[in-house]
Amino acid sequence: MEVIFTSNYEKICEEAARIILREWKKKKNLALGLATGATPLGVYKELIELYQKKEIDFSGVQTFGLDEYLGLEEDHPQSFAHYMKENFLKHINIKKENIFRLDGKPSDIDTNCQEYEDKIKSCGGIDVQILGIGRNGHIGFNEPGSSLSSRTRVKTLAEETVKDNACFFENEREVPRFCLTIGIGTVMEAKMIILLASGGNKKDAVRQCVEGPVTASVPASVLQFHPQAKIIVDEDAGALLSRKGYYEWVFQNKERVKDYLK
Ligand code: GLP
Q: Which of 101, 151, 170, 205 could form a disulfide with 65 if both were Cys (CB 3.0 to 4.6 A apart)?
């Protein structure tokens, strides 16, 4: 796990976009896993700017949505399909046929979930998965208690998630209680994971994710098992991390490793 401390939210987004750009340079048909929520918005903004400056080209890129509310049409203003289109996909030159997402109104849930898993596999797996983190430690919509080897499936939202997401709807009653999410096992198969966390309301979840025991009660803690997980935080979200000095030193000095071989 690599913990990257930044001074503020903008820097989190710049760092995440920088990593994605670097990975895209290595693989032009990058498979990018996309998260919703307020946190990744700045990353999408950065990527759009990089595209406008012609530093990145999305014509070969494939994207996979992380989750979706069950029962919402694609064009519902709160569907994650709508969020991704408005905040990212319609601003870049991605090919329509390279955009993959979970259907909020599937004809058959199990079949659709299996087909989504198959699609990810047939594209060679997700290269870079962007993640936010819920205050209760969830990733995607994998709520506490989710199996750490779960696959894409239907989930029931936790009470605190319904409350946290109520601000996007008219009122709490409007928030769907069920969702579809790629599983924790599915997330863990991504070659690289970038988890972003900003603000003091995420500090406890970040502490448990990075320095707590690995437990299904804090789904994000499973990232401790991932060989390429980058946790990018600002001062507030990382406030409870006990090894802050060490993480900062590692990040600032990682290029020096090569000097030891000279
Ligand atoms: C939702 C999404 C998650 C996201 C989380 C945190 O529950 N399903 O993918 O990480 O919210 O969102 P935010 O970044 O707005 O705090």
A: 101
